[in-house]
Amino acid sequence: MTYRPILAVIEREIVRLFRQKSRLLSAMVRPMIWLFVIGAGFDAMLGRGEGSSGGASYQYFLVPGVLGMSMLFGAMLAALATVYDKESGVMRMLVVAPFEHYWIVVAKTLSAAIAAAIQAVLVLFLLALLGYLSKDLSLPLLAAGIASTSLASASTGMLIAACTKTLDNFAVMMNLVIFPMFFLSGSLYPIQHLPDALRIVAMLNPYSYGVDLLKHALPVSGGAEFSASFSTDFSLGLNLAVLLGFSALATAIACARFSRETAYEPLIHMLSRKRGE
Q: CA-CA distance, 256 to 77, in Å (whole number)?
């Protein structure tokens, strides 16, 4: 009957997501800022966009990247709730429940992935309303891209949450991880155009394969030259294999790191500080 506590944890996280209206709003506004501000800036620099003779707008190339961004940031913030549960004492109630502790990590990872996917769907509706979705999009590939990228991002967040003890540590670790993952993922420019050293780092970044899978699902149409310059970097099979393999590995490591003592560490540190005073 393990599925009942897992469903309970997932339901709690989804209810918390919909109660935090500002979180949903920022999940939709952040990608739009990148699309319209960064996209317009690059368009002006490259001589592209409406009214120019430079071809298709660079903003269309950014669409898979900003969609992936909504999942990466959404999953990381959902994983932050795990650390908050440690500090608030909720985790101590979970670890005394009659099921193996690694199911807590699995449930938290799934709930973070679902939260990230929900935010991606909201951004997708917004992009459709603004006319930024390609007519050649593939719905099965898009669903696979959202599911696998959300899971990989949630696994990354849970791995960080399992290795950190306080919210402050998680915030520092998240900033150290999330920005290199985003900037070296092909979200803003094709990996094939990067210098050799950065291209190798981007190829080692599992999030790169999620963005590339979204590019397969949302092909850019803007002429042969534009399509060739901003084409995908990896095959579909490689993208899925890396994303699912990384998710399994990161979740396994997070499960191994998580223990009953992990849930009590914030309380122990809090008591230690009080005794020191």
A: 22
Instruction: Tell me how many degrees the CA angle 235-241-244 measures, rounded to the nearest 5.
Output: 135
- H-run or E-run covering 90: helix 90-95
Q: Supply the pTM of this predicted model.
A: 0.85
Token readout for 148 is 């696998």
Tokens 């999942």 sit on residue = 71
Summarize pLDDT for 220-247 with one digit per residue, the tens: 765 556 666 667 888 999 999 999 999 9
17-21 long-range contacts, CB within 8 A, separation 24+: 17/78, 17/115, 17/118
Q: Which residue is it, tokens 């670890």?
A: 95
Compute the C-alpha angle 144/113/132, nearest 5°. Answer: 55
Residues in contact with 240: Cβ distance below 8 Å, sequence separation at least 6, in sequence order: 144, 148, 213
At residue 25's C-alpha, the angle toward residues 19 and 26, to 5°, is: 115
Phi, psi for 231 (deg, rounded to 5) = -80, 175
Structure tokens at 219: 């092909």
How far is residue 110's CA from residue 116's CA, in Å, rounded to a whole number?
10
Supply 200's token pair: 């190798």
Taking only the tens place, the pLDDT of each residue in 78-111 is 888 888 887 777 777 776 777 777 888 888 899 9
